[in-house]
């Protein structure tokens, strides 16, 4: 089958979902009000609460959620065949991710920009909120620890990416000053920023930067991880307009250019999908497609981390409530497009089925490297780009998005620590909260693995925990809709499906960890399962209470 057909069907379906389904949700379910005063205005502080142009905010939201996961998940899941991966990405984007991201943003903006964890306290009670925060903290710990390891590996394996990756920070700082300090219109910084980014990619391909084997007594990978956490800590302390917003925005534009190149390469190169539609010759260690498909592909179909970003940083920058549809739902569509590209790269970027099978020799194979290599081949065959340059473009794209996810993730982890302190009656200031967040991540990175890669030690639980968090976030949105007397079916159906698949996967993994005598992951699995079941029970109790007239939210006041 031609990859062109897969590309057209996938892009068309997601476009129709945005044009029609998201409009229905915005008007009939969330009932967006253009006159509502968002927290960015009512609580404006110039640091976290800043009214933001919807295109810039979309760039922040999209690139914060589009880290390595929407590439890694599909690149692994195609081992079951391209049809299951394609169907879950497309249908998940339209009916799951869009309404989840959009809903978390809307609910938070209606409640002073509170995170879904804190919002749960108002809707399902203090016990549910405490357990919700435990799940959130663990997801953020996994994301920050693992993405640091992924980025460091790519910086070592692709030295041509070093100059453009770190140069992008300077580009973002300049763009932030031009837009916010000198009031330059968005067009010229956007064009200039993208041009400079791609010039940096060309420069990096000519001047690769490889660290020596040992730097200050650390391996190259460990040194990069240390530097990444230092950068993320500083970035999370700066006002969002200085670095976070412009970096995310310009990275979002760079991603669309990269996606455009990939899709043009597919169109002009007309590659064939060499991977099987359904793989009947799975490696011996491959788990069952149900439920593992639905947790292996998390970001790109639906992801609980998106709800954290939407309610943690994005809601505090929402200028108008009506912008939530574009920022939230279309942000999910953008990530779906990235996952679709990853599927095509990992199924049509190989010359023959045998070449594909030599990469996918066991479950868990593929990942970012398969995306980079396969995408580089597509760019070379379709557009005539040198294979090394194509690989550099895609590696930089993956690193930049993983990096922006770390920026936002560490800021979110600081918010969670401060919220937990608030519940305990302890005021945790910004600097202390950041120090604790970095300290915990560093302890995991260097205390649980070689070369600072300890974040990968708990990564096997990420997909399941992430999807579980998405289900719990949908439960909060569903409770809110029921309390307002609004139709809840559109969130309830995805909620039930996700919770069923996630809890099933937790039980499957529990058996795997027990047989492997991996007591760390087994213990975490049990804690997460108990927390999830408890929050689910609290949510069901809240749903059964039915409508609460005090929760209509017809004004700009939060829930009582």
Automatic annotation (TrEMBL):
<feature type="domain" description="CstA N-terminal">
    <location>
        <begin position="364"/>
        <end position="505"/>
    </location>
</feature>
<feature type="transmembrane region" description="Helical">
    <location>
        <begin position="456"/>
        <end position="482"/>
    </location>
</feature>
<keyword id="KW-0812">Transmembrane</keyword>
<keyword id="KW-0472">Membrane</keyword>
<feature type="transmembrane region" description="Helical">
    <location>
        <begin position="389"/>
        <end position="410"/>
    </location>
</feature>
<feature type="transmembrane region" description="Helical">
    <location>
        <begin position="88"/>
        <end position="109"/>
    </location>
</feature>
<dbReference type="GO" id="GO:0005886">
    <property type="term" value="C:plasma membrane"/>
</dbReference>
<feature type="domain" description="CstA N-terminal">
    <location>
        <begin position="3"/>
        <end position="347"/>
    </location>
</feature>
<feature type="transmembrane region" description="Helical">
    <location>
        <begin position="62"/>
        <end position="82"/>
    </location>
</feature>
<feature type="transmembrane region" description="Helical">
    <location>
        <begin position="186"/>
        <end position="203"/>
    </location>
</feature>
<feature type="transmembrane region" description="Helical">
    <location>
        <begin position="290"/>
        <end position="314"/>
    </location>
</feature>
<keyword id="KW-1133">Transmembrane helix</keyword>
<dbReference type="Pfam" id="PF02554">
    <property type="entry name" value="CstA"/>
</dbReference>
<protein>
    <submittedName>
        <fullName>Carbon starvation protein A</fullName>
    </submittedName>
</protein>
<keyword id="KW-1003">Cell membrane</keyword>
<feature type="transmembrane region" description="Helical">
    <location>
        <begin position="223"/>
        <end position="244"/>
    </location>
</feature>
<dbReference type="InterPro" id="IPR003706">
    <property type="entry name" value="CstA_N"/>
</dbReference>
<feature type="transmembrane region" description="Helical">
    <location>
        <begin position="431"/>
        <end position="450"/>
    </location>
</feature>
<feature type="transmembrane region" description="Helical">
    <location>
        <begin position="256"/>
        <end position="278"/>
    </location>
</feature>
<dbReference type="GO" id="GO:0009267">
    <property type="term" value="P:cellular response to starvation"/>
</dbReference>
<feature type="transmembrane region" description="Helical">
    <location>
        <begin position="130"/>
        <end position="155"/>
    </location>
</feature>
<feature type="transmembrane region" description="Helical">
    <location>
        <begin position="326"/>
        <end position="351"/>
    </location>
</feature>
<feature type="transmembrane region" description="Helical">
    <location>
        <begin position="519"/>
        <end position="537"/>
    </location>
</feature>
<dbReference type="InterPro" id="IPR051605">
    <property type="entry name" value="CstA"/>
</dbReference>
<feature type="transmembrane region" description="Helical">
    <location>
        <begin position="6"/>
        <end position="26"/>
    </location>
</feature>
<feature type="transmembrane region" description="Helical">
    <location>
        <begin position="489"/>
        <end position="507"/>
    </location>
</feature>
<feature type="transmembrane region" description="Helical">
    <location>
        <begin position="161"/>
        <end position="179"/>
    </location>
</feature>
<comment type="similarity">
    <text>Belongs to the peptide transporter carbon starvation (CstA) (TC 2.A.114) family.</text>
</comment>
